[in-house]
Amino acid sequence: MKEWEDKIRKVVPYVPGEQPNKKHMIKLNTNENPYPPAPKVKTVIKEMDDTKFRLYPDPTANALVKAIAEQYQLEENQVFVGVGSDDVLAMAFLTFFNSDKPILFPDITYSFYDVWADMLRIPYQTQPLDENFQICFMDYEKENGGVIFPNPNAPTGILVNLDFIEEILKQNQDVIVIVDEAYIDFGGISALPLLKKYENLLIVQTFSKSRSLAGIRIGYAMGNPALIQAMQDVKYSFNSYTMNLPSIQIGVAAVQDTSYFEKTREKIIATREWTKVKLKELGFSFADSMTNFIFVTHKSYAAKDIFEYLKTRDIYVRYFSSNPRIQNYLRISIGTDQEMDCLIAVLKEYLK
Ligand SMILES: *Cc1c(COP(=O)(O)O)cnc(C)c1O
Is 130 exposed, middle or buried (CB count within 10 Å of its CB: 0-12, 13-18, 19+)? Predict the structure, then answer.
């Protein structure tokens, strides 16, 4: 081994879901929104002034911060925006998780958390979900360097209520508690009201799922001004101009169109509920998902076999091979009614 090899930072990267590029396929593997973004996004793109691209963008992305703050009735100094919530979460790990004590998160959860912790050399300890995939709040009462969990959790789809989150906050007043609300718009209640009471709470949301903008990369954190300021200081010490000008303008257009947002999320919820009924009829079982995906297992067919078969029919769902606890599960994103109809028909053939 060469001397320099020893000095390279070694990381095991997060593996995102496949992005196959086929003309006719049903893509239910990365929880993207099946509907286009708000109509005003297209107008903004058409009318974009390219002479502005010469200039650096506003490093504070203030237009977008303002639009988000207005939407959630917060002050501008309570909002931090970044390049997808992955960027925001990584920035939050870097800013807030600096203890010798381990940070805590569930053993079955968003698989980026352990990747960031490893990369940033943050000690962590995963806490096992119970046999029904529920988070046990007692696991979060031990000494720790911070807490993070998604609500609803991914890939289980299970939502906890605000009393549960408040319980965790009460037990952890000396560390930062991050609630990753990537899927909260699909039927959950946001922890936003708790911001008034707990200054150590940070809520992270994204435009990738409920606002159909995964390709534009916008995420944001909401919290007390001291936390937001701390994240900003870290960001400006790393890369000031993360949000490009088109993304800022597109984000503003998307967040302001509340009626389109309501319409599409209600549509996805309705399709999800219909899909639950059909999957149950086919012998699948699953926790009651409050997200835009369903995490399923089948009593007589192996998840991996179903996954491989669906692929031969150009239907892509997500299979997590690396965590033994969920090796017999598939995560199926909610598409359009037509796509889900087709999925059900193909499953029906296979499960004969
Ligand atoms: C999708 C997802 C994110 C990140 O989404 P971005 O596209 O980076 O905004 C974060 N957390 C969870 C739990 C997710 O599922």
Answer: exposed
* DSSP strand pairing (330-333 vs 293-298): antiparallel
**What pLDDT sits at residue 1?**
80
Spacing, Cα 351 to ligand 1 middle (Å):
32
CA–CA separation, 333 and 337 (whole Å):
12
Give the model confidence (pLDDT) of 24-41 as tens digits.
999 999 999 999 999 999
Q: Is 213 in the pocket of ligand 1 (CB under 6 A)?
A: no
Please state the φ and ψ torsions of residue 295, each to the nearest 5 degrees: -105, 105
Distance (Å) from CA 304 to ligand 1 centroid: 24
Contact 271, 186 (CB under 8 A): no
Q: Tell me the pTM.
A: 0.97
Check pocket membership of 93 for ligand 1, CB cut-off 6 A. no
Ligand 1 centroid – CA 230 distance (Å): 22
Report in angstroms the alpha-carbon separations of 284 from 41, 281, 321, 333: 38, 7, 19, 15
The number of residues making up the chain comes to: 352
The verdict on the CB of residue 182 being under 6 Å from ligand 1 is yes
Cα of first residue to Cα of last residue in the chain, in angstroms, is 55
Q: In the chain, which residues have pLDDT < 50? A: none
Nearest CA among 145, 157, 102 for reference residue 126 = 102
